[in-house]
Amino acid sequence: MRWLQSVALASATSRECIDCMSQQIAPPPILQAHALSKVYRSGEVEVHALRGVDLSLRSGELIVLLGASGSGKSTLLNILGGLDTPSAGEVRFHDRQLGDLDDAGLTRYRREHVGFVFQFYNLIPSLTALENVALVTEIARNPMRPEEALGLVGLADRLQHFPAQLSGGEQQRVAIARAIAKRPDLLLCDEPTGALDSPTGVLVLEAIERIHAELGTTTALITHNSVIAQMAHRVLAMRDGTISEEHHNETRRPARELSW
């Protein structure tokens, strides 16, 4: 936005051209959340996990939701992905209001449009890496080949290995391959490096970075690690169930340069 303002001040370009440039810089959102609240009740006790959150995810961007444990990050991601429903507010994917969907509709939304990566890999121990990814491609509308998905995350030589034969970082990359094999519009990553050391975590982030660059998948990654925020287009800091701060990285750092 600061760049756009400087262009407007430095030139006599017409308003129409400036609007066009603005659209190139900030693509229209594919997902919007408005006034999201989430209250969990246990007897007479109420826990406010989200408090009136507004959020937009733009096509092709990579954002980081940054905050401490209990700040509401995972609750927000689960609602955006259709795994949970808000107590109040709405989520709109393109022109579709998720609150209007029944259980079958939410299942289709998750299956056709959203890829999930969690802190723990949730692989099936009795299946090879290839077979774990194939589980998703068999039910997707326009999947890539499992071999292609595993190649994107650097595991082309580990197709026939079982989870017990893979390191933690390799298992997480299998989970990423499984999430992106159906070519989702959204890739939602919940602490994907939380159980990994720094060098291994960087390998996982490089896989996410490569997928984002090659497929253009809109990606939201939540973490408590402020170093990881340096690879994002936008960083949204969360505190006490609200987005307390937002900023854009004018210069993004590649994952290979990160360490913690």
Can you walk through the features of this model?
The chain is of the alpha/beta class and 260 residues long. The chain has a domain at 59-81 and 111-257: P-loop containing nucleotide triphosphate hydrolases (Rossmann fold, 3-Layer(aba) Sandwich). Helix content is 33%, strand content 27%. The strands form two sheets. Strands 6-7-8-3-9-10 form a six-stranded mixed beta sheet, sandwiched between helices. A four-stranded antiparallel beta sheet has the order 2-1-4-5, with helices on one face. The relative contact order is 0.16.
Please, how many helices? 8
Query: What's the shape?
Result: globular
CATH homologous superfamily heading of the domain at 59-81 and 111-257: P-loop containing nucleotide triphosphate hydrolases
The CATH topology of the domain at 59-81 and 111-257 is given as: Rossmann fold
Structural class by secondary-structure content: alpha/beta
pLDDT below 50 for ≥5 consecutive residues: which ranges?
Answer: 1-23
Major beta sheet, specifics? Answer: 6 strands, mixed
Q: Can you tell me the CATH class of the domain at 59-81 and 111-257?
A: Alpha Beta
CATH architecture type of the domain at 59-81 and 111-257: 3-Layer(aba) Sandwich
* Averaged pLDDT: 90
